[in-house]
Design brief:
The chain has about 675 residues and is an alpha+beta fold. About 20% of the residues lie in helices and about 35% in strands.
């Protein structure tokens, strides 16, 4: 017999029921399992609920006939298989194979059930298969063997008898009362109920809608329902035990009817919190739905706001579990579930995010403060609002929190090109992320500092326009000579002026400016000291300049550094100013002197007396009065005085900005929301 079954399988017979729809096989077992089947059978689904019938005493193979009733199709007979085997003696067995053979038609198929984990304390293997489709009046042979083969050989046959037609009834949908009215014609009484059609069985509705009513012939009954869903069916049977049943599912192909209530019947369970970059949701539904899930994002958290679709973001689905990897999980980055002609948006249930960002204004710079609870990389870009949209513009700024590093605050500094600039911030280490828009308010509290910074920008710009012939970079050096800009971060006002000067040197003069605030990612990866000495070596090889911008705060930090050196205290590995002083001190004491170092200070924030005596041999420039001389030093030669005649006028302009700044409070940090 085994040889006959093997031969039939190798001959690749035709499908079991030509022209009929075969429902998905369902395998129930008392152990964790997975199942595969021959291509003539539907893909099986393996689960581990309580068995629907009392377990058998092993070894046993029990076959029975049941009715397979797909929605909106006529019922067809099929074969249910219940198998019980003793666990003892099956050591090393990884699975079971069931072979089916319909004797008269020679149609065959096979099903394999693989064990993942044996149930703790279980002494038997209990497996039930629902169900193998056959034709009425046919005889089916079922045999079982182990994988790998351990000599087990159990076989059994079963004849499927032809059954008469089932009970007859009519129905009417009454939407006003949310009920279905069933009429039983003259004749015997019928048991009538509403049920939800699942894979094989029609399960009763939850209380209080689980009514089953005996209706005499010639009478009607009204059956209420909770939700109008596609799997809502009407089932009728005779009062006799195990009698024939008739079933109708009138709403299965009526999406316009059930669409408004479909999503109200579904419960969504959010499991996105278990992973830092994965969205996961599980659906619990009355009907065996398999909707399509894609990503969309909302501009605000309000449910009435439209959700914009994200291309190429379809989630994977397995047993009603929807997952999508490489996602920045955010309360406004949601799943859109689509089924038929209806859809539903479900957002993550947790209100908090894994990272937060705020923005403050430093002169003409935007400083982003990023705090993340997970290792991540972030990108930012400036944008200008146009027609309700804010598209990012080049260049792109990025900072990274490496894996395994201590979580804390990250910072990015961006130039604010014009008043009213906004910035987009997003996680760049994932595939799907919502861009957060921040627009700082600079309308009232920053005019003093902005006036001073704007005056400096205007000063440098006019000088560069008047002296553009003298400042053209040499051929072969499109970026000009490199400039390493060092400073002491003692005030926001000083930082704003430092960044404004650096930006104008880069964009107007064409200098290759190296500033730690612009290279936060490189400083974070290499470390403060390696980054500083690498940049100093690069500037020295390119015959560039180290520009040291001094202030009163720099004087205090310099004296503190000298006291630490005298006491033999090791410097802070993250103190870039102290490292710069150590580097300069070493070069001042060497034979080559301090070539390549230039000191400058803003007259508003410093005076010549604030420059320490050991640093006074350095070329020193007072800004803005001696800005032309500084530009000449950066170029390598003094500028031509006859071509730069605007110094007095620009100095007066800067003094006006300075007086405005004297009457304004110090610019506080301004946090902007999305």
């Amino acid at each position: 017999m085994e040889l006959v079954l093997l031969l039939l399988l190798l001959l690749s017979p035709p499908p079991l029921l030509p022209g009929a729809t075969v429902s998905r096989l369902r395998v129930s077992a008392n152990f964790e399992c997975r199942a595969t089947a021959s291509r003539w059978l539907s893909r099986p689904r393996c689960r581990r609920p309580p068995l629907p019938v009392p377990p058998l005493e092993p070894p046993a193979l029990q076959l029975s006939s049941v009715q397979l009733c797909p929605a909106s199709q006529r019922c067809q007979p099929c074969l249910r298989v219940h198998l019980a085997l003793p666990a003892t003696g099956l050591d090393g067995v990884r699975g079971l194979q069931l072979d089916f053979l319909e004797l008269d038609s020679n149609r065959a198929g096979w099903l394999q059930v693989w064990r993942r984990h044996r149930a703790p304390g279980s002494s038997t293997w209990q497996v039930q298969v629902d169900c193998f489709p056959v034709e009425s009046g046919q005889k089916v042979l079922v045999s079982v063997r182990t994988i790998p083969d351990r000599g087990l050989d159990i076989s059994c046959s079963h004849s499927v008898t032809t059954e008469p037609p089932g009970p007859v009834f009519t129905h009417t949908w009454v939407p006003e009362t949310r009920a279905v009215e069933v009429f039983v014609p003259d004749g015997p009484a019928l048991l009538v109920r509403l049920c939800h059609q699942l894979a094989l069985e029609c399960e009763e509705l939850p209380p209080p809608f689980h009514r089953q009513v005996l209706v005499p012939g010639g009478h009607r009954v009204s059956l209420p329902y909770e939700f109008l869903v596609p799997c809502l069916c009407i089932e009728a049977s005779y009062p006799d035990h195990d009698s024939l049943r008739s079933k109708r599912c009138p709403f299965h192909d009526q999406p316009a009817t059930y669409g408004p209530e479909l999503w109200s019947s579904v419960r969504f369970h959010d499991y996105s919190a278990s992973s830092k970059d994965q969205m996961a949701m599980v659906l619990s539904a009355s009907c065996p739905l398999r909707p399509r899930a894609t990503l969309c994002w909302r501009e605000t958290a309000a449910e009435t706001v439209p959700c914009h679709d994200i291309p190429n973001s379809t989630a994977s689905e397995e047993e009603q579990v929807y997952m999508l990897d490489k996602v920045d999980v955010h309360p406004q980055l949601c799943f859109r579930f689509s089924y038929g002609n209806s859809s539903h948006v479900e957002c993550p249930h947790r209100p908090e995010t894994t990272w937060n960002v705020s923005v403050s204004v430093w002169g003409l710079q935007l400083r982003l403060h990023l705090i993340s609870s997970v290792p991540a990389a972030f990108s930012a870009a400036l944008c200008q609002r146009r027609g309700g949209q804010c598209e990012p513009e080049a260049p792109l700024y990025t900072v990274t929190q490496p894996e395994g590093s201590a979580l804390g605050e990250l910072a990015l500094l961006l130039p604010m090109q014009v008043l009213g600039s906004c910035v987009l911030v997003w996680r760049s280490d994932v595939r799907f992320a919502r861009k957060q828009l921040l627009c700082p308010d600079v309308s009232h509290r920053h005019f003093g500092l902005l006036g001073l910074a704007l005056a400096l920008v205007l000063l440098v710009t006019v000088l560069l326009l008047n002296c553009r012939g003298a400042w053209r970079p040499a051929d072969g050096a499109p970026g000009g000579r490199p400039v390493l800009l060092l400073y002491s971060p003692d005030s926001e006002e000083h930082l704003g002026l430092v960044c404004a000067l650096a930006e104008r040197l880069r964009t107007g003069l064409g200098c290759d400016v190296h500033l730690d605030l612009w290279e936060a990612g490189g400083v974070g990866q290499a470390g403060v000291l390696p980054w500083l000495y690498t940049q100093r070596g690069h500037v020295g090889r390119q015959r560039g300049t180290v520009l040291l911008l001094w202030s009163r705060g720099s004087t205090r930090l310099f004296h503190r550094w000298r006291l630490g050196v005298a006491a033999g205290v090791a410097g802070d590995a993250h103190d870039i100013f102290g490292a710069a002083m150590a580097c300069l001190h070493g070069e001042l004491g060497s034979a080559r002197g301090s070539g390549g170092w230039v000191l400058a200070y803003f007259s508003r924030l410093c005076s010549p007396r604030d420059v320490p005596r050991p640093l006074r041999p350095l070329p020193t420039y007072r800004l803005p009065r001696q800005l032309p001389g500084l530009l000449g030093a950066l170029r390598g030669s003094p500028p031509a005085p006859r071509r730069c005649r605007t110094r007095g006028h620009l100095h007066r302009l800067l003094q006006v900005g300075t007086r405005e700044g004297d009457h304004q409070p110090q610019a506080p940090r301004v946090a902007a929301g999305t």
